[in-house]
Specification:
The protein is an alpha/beta fold. Helix content is 36%, strand content 14%. Helix 2 packs parallel to helix 7. The chain starts with 25 loop residues before the first helix and ends with a helix. It catalyses: O-phospho-L-serine + 2-oxoglutarate = 3-phosphooxypyruvate + L-glutamate; 4-(phosphooxy)-L-threonine + 2-oxoglutarate = (R)-3-hydroxy-2-oxo-4-phosphooxybutanoate + L-glutamate.
Length: 379
């Protein structure tokens, strides 16, 4: 294929549109420069780093307007580690899981593999749609994803009717939703995510906003697991009570990546200074609407998610006609410096996937659509 050169005047000012890791703003790199001699390379259990963790916890509590009694807890490992934390420290008997993509399937797989839990009850639907678990007897934990990163589906977050009466927890994987999509934290018990999406940081950390019920559940599971003859082993790395105790001291169990903390803290400050979650979610909605409107009016593209109400405003998926190979479009864009618009590999569709998190300028999203048209016209 001959090289296609997009005119410089057409290119986005910033050409990063990844669905995670996502764009890191220059101001975050400046924050790293300031931290180079005071934080990086120092102990995570001393004041400079603990102050950053404390700032992150306070900033996120403000950003999400968390209810009284809820706590912001940090732990080592990404959201995939928290799937196992849920199994080890929150589910007592059985979970019900919404499964409608690769990542929502992975939490169900983690539950399935836990030898001390009953097999999960699955509520499944095809990629491009979502399926919320229904109230189920005997279930003590309900799990689903607010935004399925693999498919660009956005699901509602609410307390399942009757779940509170049965003492069940609501655990929401918000990795590509947190910071980009509105949420009422009071409708959840564990709203968890990694910071490499809307929060413009790096992986290797999980954050979970926990309700008093979730904190009480974790402590009850810990006590039960310590009884003689108990079947459950909670590895220290997966102990939610340990993460809670350490977070209250503004630290993590093991050494975190300090760069991740610095980037995250700067991003949370920026988001709050601009108006918090209402501002961030409106900005993402504006960017996602640009892509969906373009695809709906394109002769060769269309939104993958057919139900407008189920379309993610954080990760946008667009199908291309078979006559327009997505691989060729992606390669041509990359030749011009526009990166990370590939569809999710396991989904296997002729598709583009575009991250429109708060750090991404809507004007750059608009420019991207024009660049795609320019490339397709010349393929």
């Amino acid at each position: 294929m001959d090289t296609i050169t997009i005119p410089q005047s057409m290119l986005p000012e910033d050409t990063r549109f990844g669905s995670g890791p996502s764009k890191i703003r220059p101001e975050q790199i400046e924050a790293l420069d300031r931290a180079a001699l005071t934080v990086l390379g120092t102990s995570h259990r001393q004041a400079p780093v603990k102050d950053i963790v404390g700032s992150i916890r306070e900033g996120l509590a403000s950003f999400f307007s968390i209810p009284d009694g809820y706590e912001v807890v940090l732990g080592n490992g990404g959201a995939s580690a928290f799937w196992d934390v849920i199994c080890a420290s929150l589910i007592t008997r059985q979970a019900a899981c919404g499964v409608y993509g690769s990542f929502s399937a992975k939490i169900a797989a983690s539950v399935e593999s836990a030898p001390f839990l009953e097999p999960p009850i699955l509520f499944e639907s095809e990629p491009g749609t979502y399926c919320i678990p229904e109230r189920t007897e005997y279930v003590d934990t309900y799990c689903w994803a607010q935004s399925e990163t693999s498919t660009g589906v956005q699901a509602p977050v609410y307390r399942i009717e009757g779940s509170r009466e049965q003492g069940a927890l609501i655990c929401i994987d918000a990795t590509s939703a947190a910071g980009a999509i509105p949420v009422d934290i009071a409708q959840t018990d564990a709203y968890y995510f990694s910071p490499q999406k809307a929060f413009g940081s790096e992986g290797g950390l999980w954050i979970s906003i926990l309700s008093p019920a979730a904190i009480e559940r974790a402590e009850g599971v810990r006590r039960g697991a310590s009884l003689e003859g108990a079947r459950r082993w909670i590895p220290p790395f997966l102990s939610l009570t340990s993460a809670i105790d350490n977070s209250r001291k503004n630290q993590t169990l093991n050494t975190p990546a300090l760069v991740t903390l610095v980037l995250l803290d700067e991003q949370v400050r920026w988001l709050n200074e601009n108006g918090g979650l209402p501002w961030a979610s409106a900005r993402c909605r504006r960017s996602s609407d640009i892509v969906y409107h373009w695809a709906e009016h394109s002769s060769y593209a269309r939104p993958f998610v057919t139900d407008p109400a189920a379309r993610s405003q954080a990760v946008v998926t667009v199908d291309l006609d078979e006559s327009v190979p997505a691989a060729n479009v992606i390669a041509a864009l990359r030749d011009n410096g526009i990166v990370d618009v590939s569809g999710y590999r396991k989904l296997g569709r002729n598709q583009l996937r575009i991250g429109v998190f708060p750090s991404v300028e809507p004007s750059d999203v608009e420019a991207l659509t024009h660049c795609i048209d320019y490339v397709v016209e010349r393929l």
